[in-house]
Amino acid sequence: QVQLVESGGGLVQPGGSLRLSCAASGSIFSIVAMGWYRQPPGKERELVALVTSGTNTNYADSAKGRFTISRDNAKNTVYLQMNSLKPEDTAVYYCNADVRVLWLSPVKNFWGQGTQVTVSS
Fold it and tell me: For residue 9, which of 93, 78, 79, 75 has the smallest C-alpha distance?
């Protein structure tokens, strides 16, 4: 079993910054990819940013230029640095990871419980 624990959410004013962290623990052989998703009130969950084990990154258009995803492989941790935050960034942010728990085993997908980010004056 793999657990993902997010931290760093909270209330911030427009234009402010937050850094989200997600630490993976449990049975892990390797992490193929880690990413951040968000679900605004009344809307569907959407991808914000993704980073693979090869450090390739992808961003949603709304995040590009403002958000930066990075990972620390030694700590099995992914970060999301969010700058120039806007009210429309308000959402529950979820960590997601594709994990190989054993050598040559199929990749499994895991979700964190989510952390609330509220951007408001």
Answer: 93
pLDDT, tens digit (0-9, with 9 covering 90-100), for 27-55: 999 999 999 999 999 999 999 999 997 78
Q: Which residues contact 65 (CB under 8 A, 6 or more apart)?
A: none
Which residue in 63, 108, 102 sits closest to 84, CA to CA? 63
- The closest alpha carbon to 93, from 74, 118, 120, 56, belongs to 118
Please determine, for residue 90, whether its predicted confidence score (pLDDT) is greater than 90: yes
Query: Residue 87, SS3?
Result: helix
Please give the average per-residue pLDDT across 99-109, as a whole number: 94
